[in-house]
Every structure is written in structure tokens, then in C-alpha cells.
Amino acid sequence: MIFNVLFGLSILVSATLRGEGATAAYDPTDVFLINCGATSDTNDTSGRTWTTEYGKLVRSNLDNLSFAANASYQDVEASQVPFTEARIFRSEFTYKFQVSPGWKFLRLYFYPTRYGSDFSSNSFFFSVTVDGLTLLKNFNADLTVRTLKPESKYLVKEFIVTAYKTLRLTFTPSPDSLAFVNGVEIVSIPDGFYTKGGFDDKITNVGSSIDFVECSDDDFLLGEDSGIIPVVPGGKINYTEKTPAYVAPDDVYKTSRTMGNVINRRLNQNFSMTWLFTVDAGFLYLVRLHFCETLAEVHGPGQRVFTIFIRNQIAKLEMDVVEMSGGSRIPMYLDFSVYVGSESGLRPDLRLDLHPYTENAPKYYDAILNGVEILKLINDDGIVGPNPKLVMSGGESHVTGHKRVVTITLIAVGSATGLVSIIVLLILLVQRQIKRKKYRQNNSVAMFKVLLKHYTYAEVKKITKSFSHMIGKGGFGTVYGGNLCNGRKVAVNVLKDSTGNGEDFINEVASMSQTSHINIVSLLGFCYGGSKRAIVYEFLENGSLDQFISRKKPLTLDVTTLYGIALGVARGLEYLHYGCKSRIVHFDIKPQNILLDGNLCPKVSDFGLAKLCEKRESIVSLIDTRGTIGYIAPEVFSRMYGGISYKSDVYSYGMLVIEMLGARSKEIVETADSNATSAYFPDWIYNDLENGQQTWILGDEVTMEENEIAKKMILVSLWCIQPCPMERPPMNRVVEMLEGSLDSLEIPPKPSMHISRGLVTDQSSSLPLFSHGEEEAGGNTETFDSINI
């Protein structure tokens, strides 16, 4: 399960010491360490070099917007880079970082103290955004620092954001206030690092209808005397392809916390290891748990098995680290999603429990945990939570005294209720097998309602102002522009000919909602009521690609930008074909379904809609809802070319790239009954290649480098449009070809087929929606049973 949202990293903790000593197996493409306010480059205690802002980030003539200042008081704890200087902002100020496309790890460093003689950052309230996404709102660093546990004098806020070419980091002071920052760190992270799922390539939703009977009270909350930290002398952590070294450092996996009580193992049945993490209410969280068995005595499956509870609900019934990872000293991690509501206040606790699972009589009645990561996911309002509230000393005494009374009461009745709780828990575990089918059904529906906003049809009409602004139309429905109640612009696709009941619709859109990639349009919500079906998407300000390559709307793009768009689309399709839990085939790749954001970053839209609309038998109807003439693969017209598969998307992508480079300089033929292009380009392209000419780029000022880029795009697209699906490269190979050198590409054989302007097919035979077969290429076979459309 993969989410179609940005991640805001609010908590990163481990059950033990967080280390920095693991050898990184990932070489980040972007690394920025900015010591804000500093006048010279400086090394920190770990040897990393922090640079100044002056030059590209801050110009010297902008003192009216911001100024640099030194900390007038330096606490011993914060006496290191980057906390000795700060940049203070008088008004809105934006840092612009030139970055490569992809996910970025963003750290903001704050040391709230007095700067100079006149500016106390303790009273500063301000907001921080990245490319329009609000990370902090009316934020006060001093309030946050004073409520940290364990106590600290400085603060590091951590986020995961996505960027295309430019990352814009904006600080905006609240009215009658200032803003400040001590340091900015930006580091690239691997694609899919937090979106593909854990060791098992999935993110398990925690939100079933099964109740959890607590088997521990407040005395068993994790503290200095709760559980033990095993000592593992020497030894090497055996990182794997599924858990590479950059997932977590050695210190996380070499240290752990267990329940102890090895001698009297059954004592552990009476309690759980429990952690409480204070989080913001109203958000979905990704909880990543790290495990690694390092003790010599735990070396086989079935020896230590335990149950994972998150927010008092079963997240994983039988957790066996050795069995799942494959052996001792092999690290692994699991991902869970959980929604935290406001029923317990604005800052509730997210509770994590581990309890021995004894049904199969394991050798040790114990549990183990090496590390925890908790990531807040964006919702309609961003990822902003409230400023923490300070508790005065009198209030603290009252709370402490109240807790002591509650604790004594629990101890007094614990002996009577503990046994009952354990018996009830065991009954629930036995009934788990009986309820498994129902659990899965409830789980999918509950998960989806948590992930996306459910709108009524009346709300959709209000969002779109009674469908007054149509911004697009396709085979699956009509797209309207609109605004949410918070002012955010959205696109609403009102589906036509939808099939199935509400639960079928939910399950299919849930599958679509589990996508998260920089080149995939994000789903924000859905509507189903009676026969009405609609999907709410993010709005992309630059619209669709067709307006940039259409002769009717000659908006010019240079070759380098076109190449970036083509590569982004390829990466998006590669993700749909290979990065999702089940393969998603688009079936309608065309310029109108490629949307561009403010940085001209391409995003594939209208994916996965084929199953949501009525299945039709005739080829004309099939094309109307599952493809556009001029981009449809030949196997859609005739089975003589092979079965319909994900290679159909490869063909459409090739035609898309060819049009990007040639539609403005060659005659386009349009059918009389369709707005879609039906021209077949390769004839004139092969002629140009044979004659050593290159007429597919319009203009006399195209450089030699741009000509080579264009030629590479043309060669890759010609491979993609081979009539036989087996001869087309898969999308992961397409990405490699685009990123590789021109010299490594050969001219593919010229296709012998030609798609005419008219549509000539055998309409008496019905075509399958997709093929369940095998495709043979180079002696290997690939099965298409996992196609999800």
C-alpha cells in the first residue's frame, strides 16, 4: 500500500540510541548544509562542512528583508554549528535551491535565544512553506523547545518533501513579529524510501474493527526500569537488498529493547512493552518499526514471536523477526499507517505495545524492538499542528498527584483484573482466524476512508460551483475545476458509466490512492452516492501538456525542458508498472493526461480508471474509453500483434514523445469524428534518420547538445512504438535509455505496419480488457496476472 501524499517527518526516534555510524550505501545527488547568518564556511563536530548563504541564496543588498546576527548567549548544549549564528527575517523571505527531481530530506535548525542586543527569538512567531506547502504555521520555537522530552535547548524540525528543479523555502513572520532560522539541511533520499512499504513491500493499515483488551497499565509504560537493553558484543549487521545500509545505522540494529524475565518467561504474559508518543490529532501517521535479532540464542523461526498493537489495535498478530528477515543479524522494518483522531485532545498519545504471542508455544515469551520512526502525513490543511502549551508548576503537581492516585488504584485492582484481561485477549487471538475474512473487508474500507476525504455529491457541486468550469474531458468522464473550503484549487473528475456498487468503487479507488510519486497526480478525495461517482485530484497550475505542444496553442518549450518532461513521464509510468503493490496499466497516455505543475514537473493523471467504468464489447467503445486514436497500440486494434498488456502503455508513451518533438513542425491529420490525433509519424522520422537530417525540432537556434538530446528521445520513442509488444522495452528500460548516452542507442527496425486514418477492425470479435498470458522475450517469460486496471 502506497500513499499519494507528501510526507512531513515530525518524529524520528529509536528505542535505543540513534547512531550516525553506519556506512551509507546511498550517494545523495543533492546535499546542502547552510549555516544561516555565518560569514564563512565552518565544520561541525562530525566533520561536515556548512557553507554560508551569501551569493546565490542571499544577496547583500536585501538587508531590508533580513539580516544576520550572532547569538548573544550560548548554552553549552547548543555551542556548535549551526547554532552560533542565525538569519532573522523582517518580512517574507525565500531561499531558492536548485535541486534534482525527487524526494528531499529537509531539516530546519532553531536555537531560541537572544540575538544581538535587541532581538529575542523567544517571542518570534512565523510560518514556513516549501513550494506553497505549509510546514509550520504561527510557529514559536521557544514554546516547542520548552516542552521537549528529553529536555533540550535547541530544536531540529524534520520534513520529507518533493521537488522538481527548484526548492523554494519561504519564511513568513506573523504580524508584528520576526522569523529566524539557524541552519538549513537538504539531502536527497532514494525514491520510494517511505512510500513503497517496509521489508514486505507494503504498508499495513491499522484501523480494523477488532478491539484490543489492554494487558498493561500505566506502571508498564516504558521507563528506565522497563524492559532490558541486551548487550551484543561485536558482530556485523548483514544488510540486504531489501534493507540496505541507508535504512538505519548500525546502532539502531545492534541495540534493542526486550522484555527480559528470561528465567521466568511466563511472567511476560502479564504485561506489554509500551511506548507513548505525543502527536498532533487529525492526521494519518506512518509508523516504521525496525527489528533485528542479534542474540545468539535466538537463531531460528518460532523462538520469539510477539504481537504488535498500535493505538490499542492489532497491527500484526504473529511477528517472528528471524522467520521474516531470513536469519540472525539480518535487519528488517515494517510500515503501518494509523489515523489519530481528536477524541483525546489536540495532542494525544500514539500508543505502541508489544506483547508475547504464545499460541504456538515459542521458546521465549518475549518481544523485541530496535527502532521506531513516526511520520506525519499531509492532509487537506497541510501538516501544521498547534503550538504546544506549557504546563505551569502547579498544574504539573496536580497532574502528578492525580497520576499517582490512578496508579495506586490500578495496582490495587490489577491482580483481580489482570487475569481476566489475559483470558479475554487469548480468546480474541483464537477468534482472529475466524474473523480474518471479515477483518480484511472492513480493513480496506476503513483504511480508504481514513486516507482520502469522502465528499457528498452536494459538496462536489459546491466545490465546482455546480460544474461551471470544465477543464477537460476524456473517455472516463469530465473534469471540472473547483476550490475546497480552505481555498485550495482542485480538479474533480466526474465519472460516467461507472459500474459496481459503492464498496467496489471504494476498493478500486483505494488501490489508486496508494500511489505516491513525484510524477503521479495525487488523489485528495472521492465521492460516491447512488449512481454518482467522482474523484478529487490536486490542481496543477500549468494545465496539460497538449497546450504546450499543440499548434493551436504555441507555447514554446526548449529541448531540455521537453526532455525533462519526457523523462518524468517515463518515471511515472515506471512507477505505475513496477512500484505499486499491483501493476497499474494506464491505457490512455496522451498529452491531455500529462499535467504540469508550476515548475513544469510532469504528473501522470487519469490512471487506473478503466475498472471504474462500464466494460464495453465493441472496438469503437473500447477505444472511446481506453485509448485515444494516434496513441493506441496496434494490439488493441487486432490480436494478431499480441495481447493487451502494460506494453500498450509503452507504445502510447513513444507516440507521446514523438508528438512532443514533431507535432509543431509536421502536418497533423485529424479524423472527422474525433478530436484526437490519428497521424502516424515514423515514416518521415525514419526518412530523416536515413538522410542524416533532423527536422523534428523547429527553429534555427537549436544547439548541438539539444540536437543530441532530441535524437536520443526520438530513438527511444521508436523503440517504444514497435508493432510487436515483445520488441518494446519495458518502462524501467525506457528510463535507463533516456538517462544513458546517445552512443549506446541503435536505430530500431522500421515498422512494417501503418495505422491508417480510418479505423478498420473486426468488430465482431470482442477484445479482452487485458491479457492473462505470458510474453516471451530473450528466453524469459513474464506473467501479467498482476495487472490492475
Annotation keywords:
six-stranded mixed beta sheet, five-stranded mixed beta sheet, 789 residues, 14 helices, alpha+beta, disordered C terminus, 23% helix, single chain, Jelly Rolls, Phosphorylase Kinase, domain 1, 25% strand, disordered N terminus, globular, 4 domains
Descriptive notes:
- This protein has 789 residues and is α+β, with helices and mostly antiparallel strands.
- The chain folds into 4 domains: 27-188, Jelly Rolls, CATH 2.60.120.430; 203-385 and 404-423, Jelly Rolls (Sandwich), CATH 2.60.120; 452-539, 2-Layer Sandwich (Phosphorylase Kinase, domain 1), CATH 3.30.200; 544-788, Transferase(Phosphotransferase) domain 1 (Transferase(Phosphotransferase), domain 1).
- The protein has 14 helices and 38 strands.
- Strands 27-31-32-30-29-28 form a 6-stranded mixed sheet.
- A hairpin with a 3-residue loop joins strand 28 and strand 29 (477-483).
- Helix 4 (393-451) crosses helix 6 and helix 8 runs antiparallel to helix 14 (731-739).
- The longest helix is centred in the middle third of the chain and has 59 residues, at 393-451.
- The two termini are 16 Å apart.
Write a brief caption for the model.
This protein is α+β, with helices and mostly antiparallel strands and about 800 residues long. Helices cover about 25% and strands about 25% of the residues.
